[in-house]
Amino acid sequence: MAGIAAAGLLVTLAGFAHPSIANAATPSGVIASTPAAVTAAVVEAQPDAIFARTADRADARAAVTLAEANTVLQAAKGKVDTQALVTSVAALANYRYLDTTTVQSLTNTATTATSTAKAEVAAVDKAAADAAAAEAAAAAAAAQAEAERLAAANTPDGARAVAADMAAEQYGWGADQFQCLDSLWTKESGWNYQAENASSGAYGIPQSLPGSKMATIADDWATNAVTQISWGLNYIARGYGTPCSAWSHSQSVNWY
């Protein structure tokens, strides 16, 4: 009996001394179940995080799209039809209160409308710039032509050619009358638009006295032979009727 009791006591103590042996399945079961529980919680939380990030990105894109659309609207004012863009902006304006899918869809619509309006504005601006450039080029060409014409007319031979044309076109005076005119103004000024009589103050090709009388034709009377010729032909027509009459008078009294 004592031997049996001792053996039982030994087994019991052994059990206390080695709990892993006595209940080997318990700790490993607990350890194995812990990672599974954590993984399940993480997996369950992932969709919410993804949805939140998607919603944030959609809202951020909507805000950027609205800002660009409003800029384009200002640039397009009075230039192109912006009804589609205005409508898309109005629909997207309250994106903060809309679901993500709707925000994404409306943003795409607004982006397309913005791109279309921007392209149309660019086309209108380019057309306006091209027209302005063409107008400036035409004006420059006209100014250059006028400068060349003036430079040519301000030479004695150029002045003679201008006077012959004007005499024929405006007064019907032919070659005979121009011959008298040539003699008269060769005597008066040598067809020099800068000719000035120091004693009397007469000036220019027709020797207007004073020279400022020619301002009735144009303000450039002191520098433009064409202005001087126009005034001189009118003066001869009013005072003498024809260049030959004026030349005859000049030959008689040395002035006209």
Model description:
The protein is mainly α. The protein folds into two domains: 2-122, no CATH class; 156-253, no CATH class. The protein is built from nine helices and no strands. The protein has helices spanning 2-17, 19-22, 25-76, 83-92, 100-153, 156-171, 175-188, 225-239, 243-253. Helix 7 runs parallel beside helix 9. It is rod-shaped and about 115 Å long. The model is unreliable at 1-33 (pLDDT under 50).
- Radius of gyration, in angstroms, nearest whole number: 52 Å
Element-by-element helix/strand order: HHHHHHHHH
Structural class: mainly alpha
**Count of DSSP-assigned helices:** 9
Low-confidence stretches: 1-33
Largest sheet: none
**Percentage of β-strand residues:** under 5%
Entry keywords:
mainly alpha; 9 helices; disordered N terminus; 2 domains; 75% helix
Helix/strand layout:
Elements: H1 2-17, H2 19-22, H3 25-76, H4 83-92, H5 100-153, H6 156-171, H7 175-188, H8 225-239, H9 243-253
Brief sketch in words of this structure:
With 256 residues, the chain is an all-alpha fold. It has 9 helices and no strands.
